[in-house]
Amino acid sequence: MLEVLVSSQVVGGLLLRGAWDYWAQSLILIVLLLGAAAYITDGAVRGRWALAPSRLSAWSAALALLSLASAWLSPARAYALPAWACGAAGLWLFPAATLLSARDRVRVEQALRAAAWAAVLLAVHQRLDGRSRPTAMFPNQNVFAGAILLLLPFAFRRGDGALGALLIVCLWWTRSVGAWLGLSVALVSHRRAVGAWAFWAGAAAGFLGLVAAYGKLQSPEVLHRLAWWSAAWRMSAGAPWLGLGPGTFAYALPSYLSSRSDLNSLYAHQHFLETAAELGWPYLLLWTGGLTVLLRRAEPSKRFGPVAALAHGLVDYPLSVPAVFWLFCLSAGWAQPESESAVAVPSGFRLPAAVLASSLALLGVYRVGGGWAADRLRARVFAASGGLTSAEAEKLLSASEELRPHPDAARARADLALASSAGYAAASSLESAAAHLERAVALDPYRASNWLTLEGAYRRLGRPADAGAARERGALTCPVLRAEPP
Questions:
Q1: Percent of the chain clearing pLDDT 70 (strictly above)
Q2: What one-character DSSP code corresponds to residue 19?
């Protein structure tokens, strides 16, 4: 049962565009919650629960709790909590990997091999169709390159040289300099395991990658990365203990850019700086320290993929994409041997344990499903592009906020109220807009346009003191407001 659950999560995530979309993340999390409850219940009925190594479990649990604290206390909790759920789904794979028997691991590897074949065949089709840099089923070439680095060891462990060769060809097609540097680091650092020819091939690939990187030093691609890294460093310095919350980098970025404000990016393109910015330095130290201990003792074939991915993460963001992160966690978790520990479940605890596991799973499904439903309602409004009346849009947005408060829904409702503020009910519409905008800035204080619109609404209401206070509050998180005239 456990191998089916792990395969469903990791392989399903890869096939669903890397679980990039919110609906894909929600679907996989729901399957994971129900499957985990079924697995725990099955163990309770049998009277025996397998146990992962205690230190590994404690490390994973500590990371999950630290990241939960970061998400819960985040100034942008509406974005941080869903991102935390995806991260926690990856962390559970560390202990789960040790509970898989040798036969179960073979089955999971076979499923990953099938997913890898699907990716390379789709990439070949895209290449023949005229796309010079195929993405397979992933959002872009960088994510595809990151997945390739982690899939390569599975292909060679299964003795599938044809798949390995095609993965290398696809890696070449992606033109990801960072991925080639990551592959080079892994090859050079595993000289004894890969052989002399692979070592020198890795050294050559690394040299060519460095030359390519040097040639891009003055390119926008590199200059933008430097700006994002600098912003991530300032974020981590401003919130060193818990960060700004998982998944919040893109929303906070405009407030931390030193000069230009148009360098928007979903990710920092640097795994370690982004981790420090979003989750804090204690989390980063615990994360890297645990990985060092975990991978140092691993067999070279099981260490190769994670090392390559971490080296790639120095200059790019695939580890920020849920399915690639899940694959990384599974690969690193397999660095540990199969656990043989178990605990007997007393007969008096079996039914309560099954009921508790099922109840927690259903609660989790309710939370995830509610967020998914709220997202679908918002999407209906934004996709309508004027096809809905104001009343219809307001009804959908109100229903969305009842399920999950969200800054986008609050801002959209404020816009609807402002659009209707020219009539006889101008004052009440403006009051309603101000209330929605107050909720929007409380949920996401990094969007300068919300603060400016709130200030304008208060001025139209004849409340200059509240308008000035809104400007001052907004300037705390949006420095651009300090430079703009009221």
A1: 91
A2: G
